[in-house]
Amino acid sequence: MITTAAINALFALQKENAPALALTNAQERIEKLKRIVAYLKEYVADFQEAMYKDLRRAPLDTLAEMLMIKSEAEFAIANLPAWMRPHPVKTGLMSKGTKPYLIYEPKGVTLIIGPWNAPLACNLVPMVGSIAAGNSVIIKPSEFSEHTTAVLRQMIAALFPESEVALAEGDAQTATDLLALPFDHIYFTGSPQVGRIVMQAAAKHLIPVTLELGGKSPVIVDETADLNAAALKIAWGKCANSGQACVAPDYVLVQQSVHDAFVQKVKQAIQTMYNPDDKGIEHSEAFCRIINTRHFNRIAGLISDAVEQGATVADGGSANEADLYIAPTVLTGVTYSMRIMQEEIFGPVMPIIAYSNREDAAEKIKLLPKPLALYIYSSSRANMDYFLKFTSAGSTVINHNMIQAGVNPYLPFGGVQNSGMGRSVGMATFTGFSNQRSVVENPTGWRDFSTISLPPYSKFFRKMITYLFER
């Protein structure tokens, strides 16, 4: 674990080097991004092995996560020269004759605090954006995904001097030490509870933050939905990474007339995807394990509490602590007084709640803080529009889930209020790590008419302002 003194020295080193990094041109930054892509390609097996050891993640799923990073870097490589150029803006009525534009300048020394559930993408995607913006970076990875952190350590050491990019390994105390420093931007991915701590620490130095949080992302399945497709996609969203994803469907609101049919189809979908050979879901290559005993017990406790308060285990419910395995579990008869409806599940447990009409569904969603994602399954345009109008979320997907985050570089991603602030992916990551500087060039000589607005005010200027206001 890095010491407090070492953290302070590392910060000072990057602070000293920040002005030089700020002056790097597009090609110099692009070369750094190309090195990242090349490293990912060369050491695929190392990353896959590490993720398997941490989460028993299927190699193909790790490759898909690495593809997100590669795509983000390649998008920045292709567009960075344009992003770094001045961006002209239109003039307003009172600024005619001037030349206004925006430039994106580096913020300086940036901090990325990453999670354990997607330790590659959630650390490296913002790193790509910060490097593209001309900053230095200190990454604090999660201590829980230790094998992946070890591979990240090797990668960062091989690609960058510590004055540009460095890893600060450690536990919560390390994060506390880092948050005490006056970084120029903080990018945090994690829970709303820890997000509040990050924001409080940042407020002491007025540090801008990007918070990619989570919360309880609801799913709505109305009476017009294709139940077979909905059940398959929602079951996948809940079971992918064993539900340990910030955009995972947390609970499902199903119109009461199709509730029972949907429950049966979800049970079938789970078997179809994760037990096709009837050897047991625990043997499925695609079904991960819980990260550690603490989270295993937390999730098991949510199930027990729900059952004790009257919920029914419609499917699953089995668990093996020694293997950190919790079977995909479907709960019905769930109420909002249960713990499982009061905290983010972050596990392969699906509470299903019946609703009467779309107004009822919208009101149920409003009982909880605004989510990172909202998923709508419907064939009714009127219902889709209603749910979009009368709910709020960081992102929404219609007739699928988990396809909005990190797969389209033109679509910014982020939360709202309790589920986060700021946006990332594509240019949004670059601008998040940049200071958007407004510049206005005023003409000189005979083209400069600005002096007519200076005291003493002429009759012409008085008439002009009066006319423009009253017209």
Describe this entry's structure for a reader.
The protein has helices at residues 4-22, 26-42, 44-55, 59-84, 121-132, 146-159, 172-179, 192-205, 227-239, 259-274, 293-308, 358-366, 381-390, 427-432, 459-470; strands at 87-88, 99-106, 109-113, 136-140, 165-167, 185-189, 209-212, 218-221, 251-255, 312-315, 319-320, 325-326, 329-332, 349-355, 373-377, 395-398, 420-421, 434-441. The protein is of the alpha/beta class and 471 residues long. It has a seven-stranded mixed beta sheet with strand order 10-13-14-9-8-15-16, sandwiched between helices. Helix 5 (121-132) links the parallel strand 3 (109-113) and strand 4 (136-140). Helix 3 (44-55) runs antiparallel to helix 6. The chain starts with a helix and ends with a helix.
The CATH fourth-level homologous superfamily of the largest domain:
Aldehyde Dehydrogenase, Chain A, domain 1
The average pLDDT is 97
Unreliable segments of 5+ consecutive residues: none
Strand content: 15-25%
Instruction: Please outline the major beta sheet.
Output: 7 strands, mixed
Number of domains: 2
Please, how many helices? Answer: 15
The CATH architecture term of the largest domain is 3-Layer(aba) Sandwich
Q: How many beta-strand segments?
A: 18
CATH class of the largest domain: Alpha Beta
Roughly how much helix do the residues carry, as a percent range? Answer: 40-55%
Silhouette? globular
Structural class: alpha/beta
CATH topology of the largest domain: Aldehyde Dehydrogenase, Chain A, domain 1
Widest β-sheet, arrangement of strands: 10-13-14-9-8-15-16
Give the termini separation: 67 Å
- Computed over alpha carbons, the radius of gyration is 25 Å
